[in-house]
Structures are given as structure tokens and as C-alpha cells.
Amino acid sequence: MAVRDSDKRSKHLAEHRGKHLGSEAPENFSRGFEALGALAVSGVQVSARATDLTTGRVLFSVDDHVVMPTASVGTVLLLIEVAARLRDADFGSYTLLDRTAADSVSGSGIWQHLQAPSLPIADLAALVGSSNDNLATNVLIRAVGLEAVHARTESLGLSRSALLDRVRDHRGPDDAPQLSVGSAKEFTWLFTALARGEIIDAETSGRVLGWLSLNTDLTLVAGAFGLDPFAHRAGDHGLLLVNKTGTDAGVRSEVGILRGPRSGVTYAVSMSFSDSTLPARLNVLDGLRAIGLDLLEYVH
């Protein structure tokens, strides 16, 4: 049954290849559709969407309404709550937050390897934006509360996307099965609204984008853009990127805004797969970069 469903999804991708753009447009995203179709046949669950940043026109979409595991991508919802609270004098940028033993977690991030027991709130947000720092994420979640993040998410009108839990080394039967979930449709809307300064207000949106612009993970979709992962805030060859990535066992997800000399796009791609072999993982990464190449051609 799984193979049959994958065959149907691949057929759907093939039938809809390039139909989201005019017949005269050179950017038909055929490379990305072919890659996604091949992955679907192999059993990978795919959800993707890209829209023109200025007009909102849908450039391509594949199961963009489906709720997918998105790993650390969901921490952008945490950053929005943190940014909104920085207007509060008791929760200012320089307010120090301590790390505790309960916050400790392995995986991504550098704070766990540093000696500093406390860091300012704004620095913790920068760590989350730049390297998906798990320890900084947990400390910020403890400071603002998951309930507040959920309330903020709902107030934004998001019903298919959520930060479900703190970061954990092991997830038991009583824990949320994923760190975060989301739909490509909602996340592209969210990042477009951030780019337009419409999330809470322009100041809050700008703070969030500033933290996200520090992201050093260009291994997924953004791997096709040729940017320096450690220094791309000022732009390079006319390209400006702001993105958030999520990586977990069998999960690769990325949401971003890419601006170029010709146009800009907002994109979201999530893949769920059996991460049982290295070739399976590499095929997923190749598919993500194929989408990235189509996006690059559209904006440059």
C-alpha cells in the first residue's frame, strides 16, 4: 500500500510539473518536481511550497497543507514570543538567564560547550537563530513558557504549526513525539509576513529576522545558493537569505526567504523518511538542493 501511495504521489507531481507558472516562464521548477517525484516513489513523505515574495503567487506546491514534523524550524515561534516580550522592561535584551541541569541536552548548539553559566536573552535568541542551540532553546522555553508560545501561535492564526515541547535527548511515551510540526503553507505565510513586518509589528518582525539571518546551516535547500554559511547577512552576488532549518532522525525541514536581483521567494520544504542508510539520507539532501537550484534560477 505504501508503494502504491508513493506511485500516486509521483504521478501527481509529474502531471502538475510546471503548471503553476506561465508557459513562457523559463522557471518551471521541473528539476525540483522530478526530484520530489523520485523521492516519493522511494517512500519519502514530501511537503513543499514556494511563493513569490512580492505578489504572493504560488510558484509550486506539493501537499503543502499536510502537517509534517519540522524539528527546530518550530523554534521560530519561540523567537517570535521572545521578540514580542523584549518591549517589557522586566524581560529586556540584557536580562540574564541561567542554565540549569534540567535544561541540559546534547545535539546542536555551542552553549553546552562554553563556560558561561548565564547569558542575556537576546544572546540566547541569537544562538537559537544561528545554530539551533538546544540548550538556549530550552532555557528560553522555560523563561517564557510553552503555553505562551502556543497562545501566540494561535493568535497569529496558525492551526497546523506548533512548537510542541522542549528539546529532549530521548522522547518517552509521555512526551510529545516531535519537537515541532507545521505545514508548508502556514510557514511560507509566516515568513512572508515577517518579511513585510506584519508579525506583531515591524520592530518585532525585524528582531526575529535579524536572529534568523545568523543561521549557519546551509546544508539543505540553501546548499544550492553558494553562500558563505558563516557570513551571508550582507548579501552575496545579489542574494540575501534568511532561513530556519530543522534536522532530526528521518526529518529534514527548511523555511526561508531568498531575495535576488530579479525577484524574491518564500519557501518551505519538509521531508520525512526512513533514515536507515546513508544513501537514503543523501538522496533526500540531493532533492532539497534540486529545489534550491530552481529557487535560485527564479530569483537570480
TL;DR?
The chain has one domain (2-299): DD-peptidase/beta-lactamase superfamily (Beta-lactamase), CATH 3.40.710.10. Helix content is 38%, strand content 18%.
Furnish the topology, listing elements before pairings.
Layout: H1 2-15, H2 30-41, E1 45-52, E2 58-62, E3 68-69, H3 75-85, E4 96-98, E5 118-120, H4 121-131, H5 134-144, H6 146-155, E6 162-163, E7 180-182, H7 184-195, H8 202-212, E8 240-248, E9 251-259, E10 264-272, H9 278-299
Antiparallel strand pairs: 1-2, 1-10, 3-7, 4-5, 6-7, 8-9, 9-10
Helix pairs in contact: 1-2, 2-9, 3-4, 3-5, 3-6, 3-8, 4-5, 4-8
Strand order of the largest sheet: 2-1-10-9-8
CATH architecture: 3-Layer(aba) Sandwich
Strand content: 15-25%
What's the CATH C level?
Answer: Alpha Beta
Fourth-level CATH superfamily: DD-peptidase/beta-lactamase superfamily
Biggest β-sheet description: 5 strands, antiparallel
Indicate the overall shape.
globular
Mean residue pLDDT:
90
Count the strands? 10
Based on secondary structure, the structural category is: alpha+beta
Structural domain count: 1
CATH fold-level topology: Beta-lactamase
Query: SSE order, as H and E?
Result: HHEEEHEEHHHEEHHEEEH
List unreliable stretches of 5+ residues.
Answer: 1-26
Enzyme class: hydrolase
Pfam families: Beta-lactamase2
EC number: 3.5.2.6
GO molecular function, one term: beta-lactamase activity
Describe this structure in words.
This is Beta-lactamase. InterPro entries: Beta-lactam/transpept-like (IPR012338), Beta-lactam_cat (IPR045155), Beta-lactam_class-A (IPR000871). Residues 1-16 have a biased composition (Basic and acidic residues). Its EC number is 3.5.2.6. Keywords: Hydrolase. This protein is α+β, with helices and mostly antiparallel strands. It has one domain (2-299): DD-peptidase/beta-lactamase superfamily (Beta-lactamase, 3-Layer(aba) Sandwich), CATH 3.40.710. Helix content is 38%, strand content 18%. It is built from nine helices and ten strands. The chain has helices at residues 2-15, 30-41, 75-85, 121-131, 134-144, 146-155, 184-195, 202-212, 278-299, and strands at residues 45-52, 58-62, 68-69, 96-98, 118-120, 162-163, 180-182, 240-248, 251-259, 264-272. The strands form three sheets. Strands 2-1-10-9-8 form a five-stranded antiparallel beta sheet, with helices on both faces. It is globular. Mean pLDDT is 90; it is low at 1-26.
